[in-house]
Amino acid sequence: MAKRNITKSGIRSFWKHRLKQVLEQPALLTAIRLGAQEPAFVTQDWRKYWSGCHGTADAEIDLLKRAWEDYIRSGFDREHAEQYVQAYLALLGCVTQSRATRCSASERLLSRVLAFENCVLWDWAKEDCMGLVTSDWRNPALVSLRTLGLRKHDRNDSALLPLAVASLRYRSHLFYHYRKQRFLKNTDRNLLFYLSADVALRGRSFQLLQSLTNTFAAEWDSRIEERSRLFGVKVIGPFLEARQKRMRPGRRALRVLDVGSGSGLLLSGLLKMMFGRPGVVDGRAEVSLVDIWKSEPKRHFRRLGLGGELAMTEYICRDYRHWLSRSRSCARQDYDVICIFRLFHNLSSFRIGRAAPPGLRWGRYQFFPHLSDYYMAIARLLRESVLSRDRTQIANSIYGPVRLFNSNALLLDNGRSVLWQLLRMGDNVVIEDADMCREDLVQHLSDFGMKNVTAIDLTRSLRLSINHVYWIAKGKPPLPLRGEQIWPR
């Protein structure tokens, strides 16, 4: 019999179909084991999942069981969704209001309630819990945001349920929302992927999640074209156009360094736009990409027809702080532009805090009153996740998620500044980040006495509401930028 050639797209379709079958059944998907030859789906029936949780919440668990079964058998109908959500919220209220002493049984109940409809990504070889995946049509906390009309535009989904809990071998772990992936075409059903909130485990968590993307999806970011256009037309494009006018014929190739490049998808889209616009790039380009993921970025450049425009493509599989700390990386390399797209916020910290009306928001996260018990339960289960300095202690405060910029993201292993090192390698650094506000950047520049540096905040001029964008230049910026100079003051 002739051997069939199965494409990567065919493999992804096969595994998505397998997962769809699992998620349509009245069973709980508790783990996906990765690292072997193929993924393994681990499911539990209702009785096994709740074993060892008998006690004060028996009635609420039984009520949730009936609502959960009705919701699944109805094909996830909206009318049954409301009953399902109310049953889950009632169970949350029961476990958070209970005055039971802290013991293994009460902790197991808390863990089971919080991990309900969450699936652990389990590294088969290392026996570690490295990630979490959940569905927005089965997870009751996410379903509640739909039924209450609180769901926003896709780009804001990360702020709706930013923290989630999963357990493996009676140990609970905290995770934060990283990516959303449309599961089925022409539907509003999505898978949400979460990374480890433990900074020490986050690198391995990234790598495990990358292996899962190769199984279920071709690419992650649905906003690549939008972001490529933004940076190409309004940020980097004008700089390169001015550079070309200053350069003489026979000049060297354009040199670009992308730190935290991922698979190179954004940079390839950006360069495609640059080469496609007359008067922006005349000649070839040399690109260097740095990331901890094991990837093959050249495929994106080839797919976009950029092979002839690239004189060199270098991929460095290292943690950016380790790489920049190496002596060989310290030499002047004359990069024309250095890009850092959404990298630093991957090292942010996550906590549970409290806020009171009317300001039900902490940073980029809104606090939803109906999910206060959800975050209170996380605070009780994982005491280390509680913010040490609550904003308020008044009785009307509610619990919610807090995301804090980690200033160590700007420090090398030797204690030096990441930005100082990058400005030794090139005169212009472009930063896009969700958590590093202007106060964080100014504080860092001040701490390291970086006087011969100019920092421009482009966020408002670009009309951005989620991410911040900064241009940092050695000396004065190479051209007038439509933004606010925040350093030097």
Structure description:
It is a single chain. The chain is of the alpha/beta class. It has 15 helices and 19 strands. The chain has helices at 8-23, 46-49, 58-73, 78-97, 104-114, 140-147, 199-216, 224-234, 236-246, 265-276, 298-303, 320-325, 372-381, 418-425, 438-447; strands at 28-34, 40-44, 118-123, 128-135, 163-168, 171-182, 190-196, 254-259, 285-291, 310-317, 337-341, 349-355, 361-362, 365-366, 398-404, 428-433, 453-457, 468-474, 484-487. The protein has an eight-stranded mixed sheet, with helices on one face. It has a seven-stranded mixed sheet with strand order 2-1-3-4-7-6-5.
Estimate the helix proportion, in percent.
Answer: 25-40%
Distance between the termini: 74 Å
How big a fraction of the residues is strand? 15-25%
Based on secondary structure, the structural category is alpha/beta
Query: What's the number of extended β-strand segments?
Result: 19
The global form is globular
| Biggest sheet statistics | 8 strands, mixed
Calculate the mean pLDDT score and round it: 84
Q: Low-confidence stretches at least 5 residues in length (pLDDT < 50)?
A: none
Strand order within the widest sheet? Answer: 10-9-8-11-16-18-17-19
